[in-house]
Amino acid sequence: MIQELHSAYLSGKQSPVEVTEAYLSSIGERNPSLNAFLTVTREAALLCARKSEERYKNRRPLSPLDGIPFALKDNLCTEGIRTTAGSRLLADYCPPYSATAAARLSESGGVLLGKTNMDEFGFGNTGLLSAFGAVTHPFSPGTVVGGSSSGSAAAVAAGLCAFSLGSDTGGSVRLPAAFCGVFGLKPTWGSVSRFGLIAFASSLDTVGILARSAEDIRTVFGFLTAGDHKDTTHRQMPPHSLRLPAHPRIGILTDLLPFSSAAAANRIKAAAHRLETRGMAVTEYRFSGLEHLIPAYYTLSSAEAASNLARFDGVRFGTRGKGTNAQEIFKSTRALLGDEAKRRILGGNAALCAEGFREEYLRACAIRNHLKAEMTRAFEACDFLLCPVCPRDAWQADETSRYEDDLCTVPASLAGLPALTVPFEDGAVQLIGPDFAEELLLDAALLLEEVRA
Amino acid sequence: MSELETVIGLEIHAELKTASKLFCSCPSRFGAPPNQSVCPICMGHPGAMPSLNRRAVSLAVRAGLALNCTVAPLSQFDRKHYAYPDLPKAYQITQFFYPLCTDGTLSVNGKNIRITRIHMEEDAGKLLHDSKETRIDYNRCGVPLIEIVTAPDFHSAKDAADFCRKLRRILLFAGVCDGKMNEGSLRCDVNLSIHRKSEPLGERTEIKNLNSFKFIEKAICAEEARQTAILNRGGTIERQTLRFDEKTGQTIPMRDKEDAADYRYFPEPDLLPLRITPEQIEAVRQSMPPLPDEIQARFSEVYRLSDEVSEQLLSSPEIAEGFEACARLTAFPLICGRLYAACVKDAAVDPVAFAALSDLAGNERISYTDAKILAAELTEHALDPIAQAEARGMLLIFDEGKIKAPLAEILAEYPDKVQDYKEGKTALLGFFIGALKRRIDFPASPKLLSEAVLKKLNEITEESSHE
User: Which are the catalytic amino acids of A?
Assistant: First the structure.
């Protein structure tokens, strides 16, 4: 869609202002019931669109993204624009700077429509845990949207923006993308600068993309991978990206299937079968230690989350609770956190304290290292892996969610690997690749689309 | 039962002399208006990430080399968590598990002190209390520090204080730290316990934030006395954090810091492990300015300066260099050293003029007292020493002829004393020299005077013995 819009702008068939106004209008209509957007930057968006239009008139667009309206998950800092991370602690926080990923899109001419709703600080996979109300599913009322990039997924699915950025720590882009029927990319850890992404678990966090097509994901991804000296963990993409070879070998993570619903398992089999009929080699890839992954993920991510959230004490920025001394202010401020946030922080601190460190944190690190080794072996035998995005399909909002629902997404998170949600049949499948294999995964996704069609 | 022994270990924090903070590009400087040197990174805003200052790493490596440490090829940054208003992220980025340097040594007063580790960390902000409220200035937040930890190898307050003096000077000369203790560039924490020799170490207390050598010594003595008194009446020492109260001269428990807090250390995920190659270490070694011991050896061997004068000339690299610039140009480096040490405190002096002045004094063309006067003036403005000495009648007379008459007068005036001298009271030489000095109305070379008097007295004595 992005390429089509860009061509339309170039040919004059459509204009950035027109398109932006149409999106703003849709947002006005549908957001009250969807609650996908927390902040809509109407005036700024129109100003941006007008400038873009000028550039197209003078045949000098900044890039293929020029004039393309997009949304940002509300944990990406935007200078002067309210950034809440879905939390009461940041209800009125206006960052003094912008996240690098956000700035890159704006500098390329992208039109920011607003900030999207999310589970508080990224804690959650339902879209129900924002301090500012749940996100409603655009097509299946009563069904969870998925989280934590819930607003981003709903906005893209409902046609309220051309694409959106989210963040994926344990599945937070992939899962809501699957539940909303859109594409969602979790890139290789370190490939997109995290500077300005409000941190949940630093060693797992990635800035991800949600869009309506694999091409759109590809287009946007190209703008996000440049180096950033402000994030020293940033890793440069290799000069020649890995592409899908002529005779790809696909590995199915069959170990995940017994934990998955029949629908999810059948989808995998169907996708595999279709790709096989195209001459691709499909095998199963077994890996050990599956039963440790959820506990390891929750231990590591909670430990880092407890650390990253410790700074919210009301003293320098954000909401300040009542009190006449530091201790009182700390307590009353932190009381404003949601229950899930409190749960993660308590668990995280327990894993880091003197007694817990060896037994919990270090053990989780060891499990993670084991998984990384397993995955490295996997990519000697396969070009990419295929598995469900979630063991079960989107559940009803009044059902309980379980940490186990992250089972299919945490492997790629723990191993730092790129992974892509590809809508398929009545749901979605997940493709996982080795480091820096985003292009390969997108190639595979296109093939799956072809096959489907 | 063996006697009580005091055991002391030190933790010294030194601010690295960098232009910017450790993890952001905010200027690292003292005395700026509150909260003017801050940014989202050092203020711990959500989403901000640290970016390591490489100059700080070089200076930390320099400190390690200057203190004979092993520099780790791989070290890492860790998060140390505690909640306090002066700590924006509620964790300090430090090095806990794998510090940059280990196993160094520095000897003081003939004792070899082991340096367990040197690691890098960021400083916190400053709390300012008044009767109504507490305010926080974050300018200092993120300033690069090295923490130098010694083994508990000290047994006296003097050794500990002297160690700090020596350490400060090494860091100053290495260009690592400006050593301005009154600005907080160097702070010392003391860990002290008392035990009987051959028994295990006792419970230790920590005295924090001592920022003068005098206070280090006094605080140690006060705490030693306090613990000894408790032990002597059969009590037990409680592990505590204390501060030194200058007014009362006592160590007082600090009420606002937690004892034995669980810092929940874990590796800093936003920073890659710190790799230092042998080539990089060598490059730092090559760039290291001369250190005090090396300079002192040269002062002693080449210029024959006494240890006392060297000590004074090594008060700062600027003084040491300034002296050497002069010493190279004079034939009398010894006198030059004494003059420099006595008269030049911080200003620079013109080496050519100072060397000329040293030559004048060395050749006894002017008295040492007058040389000091001119030396002091040289620190304030340019002058030509020879011209000044001439104009102000400072030039000493070398003419023996002018002495003859006044000397004869004096000897004639004090026949009893002359007799005493002849009979062996040679100390009276000083009396005659003094009398002669007061009698003449022109400045004379002390050497000339004393030689003349001695010669005349010896003549008289010989004449008598021949009679």
Answer: 73, 148, 172
